Structure formats: C-alpha cells, structure tokens
Amino acid sequence: MIIVLKSDCTEDQRKEFVAELEDTYGVSVNTWVGAQSTVLGLIGDTACIDIDNIGANEIVESVKRVQEPYKKANRKFHPDDTVVKLPNGLQIGGGTMTLIAGPCSVESEAQITEVAKRVHAAGAQFLRGGAFKPRTSPYAFQGLKAEGLELLNVAKKETGMPIVTELMSVRQIDLFLEAGVDVIQVGARNMQNFDLLRELGHLKTPILLKRGLSGTIEELLMSAEYIMAGGNENVILCERGIRTYETFTRNTLDISAVPILKKISHLPVVVDPSHAGGISWLVEPLAMAAVAAGADGLIIEVHNNPKKALSDGAQSLTPDQFDHVAGRIKEIAPLFGKKL
C-alpha cells in the first residue's frame, strides 16, 4: 500500500502518522521524502487496512494498493532513481554511465595490474576480476581465491579503481569485508540463493545482482527485495543475458529488460554484454544497444591475452579493443542523457 501525503504536511505530523500506522496495523513503513511530495510505503499484511479510513486523515492526499510482491525495489514506493555512492565519490546511477572492466579471472599480479592500468586509462571507473570462479566443470580453473583478492587490491593501489568481484558463499563474506571489496557481485547462479541474499542484506557494501540464467524480471526484483529487506538498499541490477533456444550466442541479451527495470524499479541497471553474447566481436554492438536502452553502466571483460585466458577468453576484449569500445561509448552516451 502507498500513501501520498499532502505537500503542507509537517514532519511532526508525518512521524506521528507513521507511528500510528505501525502500532495499529503491525506494518513497517518506508518513507520517501521528495521535493514535491512525501510517499509512505506500507510493507507487510495490508489486506485488513481500510483505504477509506486512511484516506480520511487530513494529511493524506491519496492511497492505493500495490499488487507487485516487491515493495522496496518498486518505483511506486521510491519515485526518484536510486544512486549508489561509494566513499571515494564514484557513483552508479544518477545520469552517469559507469564502465566496469577487467578480466574474467585474476590469474597473476602482472596480468591484473596491466589490465587495470589499461582499462583505467581508457575511462573505466571500476575494476572487475574474479577471485572465486563458479565453473560448470569441477576440473576448470576455479580462481586464485584469497590470493586473487590480494592481487585485486594490488591493482587497486596502482590505479585507485574500486574492486567489483563475485561472492559465491556466505562463508566468504568476512573474507571479502577484510579484503575491502568495494562492490560485491552476486552471480547468475546465486540470484536465488536466498540464504546468501539475506546475509548480504545486513551489509552496507553495494551489491551487483546479476539476473539468473532463466530468471524472470520479477524474480530478479524479488531477489533484490531479499537484500533490501535486510537493510542494504545499495543494490545494482545487472542484465547479463538469459538462456533461450538460440545456440549461436552464449546467452540472449534481453535488451527490453533495461527500460522495463528502469520503469518499474528505482534501482540502477547495468548490462554485461560479454556474458550475454559470449563472443568478443558482439560486445561493442550489444554495449551500444545497452546505452541506447537506458543502462546506467556496462561491465565488460578485458584480458591482455584472451587466447591464453584461463576462463572466458572467447568473450574477452583486448585492451586495444576496449580502448575503441570505451571511445564509442563516450561518443554516444551524451546523446542518451548520460555522462562518464
């Protein structure tokens, strides 16, 4: 249920009204104060609440029920876009076009530092790199694990770029916090790992939540809801392609998900064109399409020697190729109201 308060409502009146709602109906109230109006989002069992009774209050402008099961991620509860801000001043959302780039896997100090320097010089603001790797085969390279986190921090010190890396298990949370990971990525395979999502809700660290291989848009938002319900509202949604019957590409980029998510949710949306296509030459056109569709950022795989990459070499750009793609993004982003 959403309650819009009148513009002349005072802060004392709002606080008193919120306390009354919580005490009377046992709901929690999410308050959004905007320039023109104040919106109260009631979360919990609202079936027994009489809309006419609420609407009769002198400070209430309008009342309506919300049918969608996701509440905190719903734009109806939070009309303005959420901007995820980092302590160093960087942000995701709010009219910016964020570039997150780096190798699929951290393989060595020389590799990650070289790639970090190149993508940073090309305009990337965040460094991605996998220390822990979920692989289909148990015999494939699984990442350097804790050592990989240490090497990411070496590259961070060299470039100043915040780290984005994937968390696979609740058991790794303390390790990630100790390593100072700036943005924790939840991979496609863990989108509905609800125990993990609940624990991430207790953190303040931003969470990059990837859409599952067969996840619907509503399921993605419900996964975001798990995190936000725990108190962590720093969630970034990521469209990375879904599994369809098409075999030419690794996945099928659901470009329509970008404007849909932007319309029904206030959370920032980034696109992963590398995992979507699975082919390096597809990264540029898919990235361009994502910018045009309204994405707030891109996460792109870059490797200094893709042919010898220990994982996902086929979809990785070389640093020179990333220079070109980043240049194209800089050209077109302002045409769609974005700035780097």
TrEMBL record:
GO terms, biological process: aromatic amino acid family biosynthetic process
Pfam families on file: DAHP_snth_FXD, DAHP_synth_1
InterPro entries: Aldolase_TIM, Class-I_DAHP_synthase, DAHP1/KDSA, DAHP_snth_FXD, DAHP_syn_2
Keyword Transferase set for record: yes
Catalytic class of the enzyme: transferase
Chain ranges of the DAHP synthetase I/KDSA domain: 83-331
E.C. no: 2.5.1.54
Parts of the chain that traverse the membrane: none
This protein's name: 3-deoxy-7-phosphoheptulonate synthase
Keyword annotations of the record: Transferase
Start and end residues of each DAHP synthase ferredoxin-like domain: 1-68
Gene Ontology MF, one: aldehyde-lyase activity
Classification via NCBIfam families: DAHP_synth_Bsub, PRK08673.1, PRK12595.1
